[in-house]
Amino acid sequence: MKPVPVTGIRPARDDELAAVAALRWRWVEDNDGPPQGDRAEFVREFAAWARAHAETHRCLVAVRDEQVLGMAFLALTPRVPTPHDFSRICGDVQCVYVVPEARDSGVGGLLIEAILRLASEFGLERVTVHSSDRAIPAYLRHGFSVSKNLLQSVIDGPASRTNS
Q1: Treating both helix axes as pointing N-terminal to C-terminal, what angle do 17-32 and 39-52 enclose, rounded to 10 degrees?
Q2: CA-to-CA distance for 77 and 127, rounded, in angstroms?
Q3: What is the side-by-side strand order in the sheet with 89-98?
Q4: Neighbour tally for 22: CB within 10 Å
Q5: In angstroms, rounded to a whole number, what is the distance separating the alpha carbons of residues 7 and 127?
Q6: CA distances from 140 to 9, 11, 36, 110 (A)
Q7: Chain segment 69-114, per-residue pLDDT in tens
Q8: Residues 6+ apart with CB under 8 A from 29
Q9: What is the Cα Rg of the chain in Å?
Q10: Beta carbons of 129 and 93 less than 8 angstroms apart
């Protein structure tokens, strides 16, 4: 394994949201081919979206010398209260991406660990993830497990044409 090329995992700063957006563009490019549309416009719109959703979608970044090498979002979702708990929250790990040149060096694992620490700080009930095949072993190493009770339905509509 290569040495971990990061100087820190931390919440994304406002001035890093363009770099996070560029990583998201690159993720789509890597998985689905060249995205449609204008990259610069996407970066602007994504950064605006991240600012507008900062309370519900916490973004962490992996950095080396101020360069963003990876990202991960923790989406926070309130759950229906029970008689015992009116403040139930669950989380979903979204948009984990590490640049190819920093993969297989532990950066993804550091992001997963940091997301789980953040989830613990929020007192979340559970954290889910919809993972690529390549990343499943990393999530399993960090305490995720397959649940026989977690099901999904893929909805055939405008929102289903985009990937997570």
Answers
A1: 120
A2: 10
A3: 8-11, 57-64, 67-78, 89-98, 127-129
A4: 19
A5: 26
A6: 20, 24, 34, 14
A7: 999 999 999 999 999 999 999 999 999 999 999 998 999 999 999 9
A8: 35
A9: 16
A10: yes
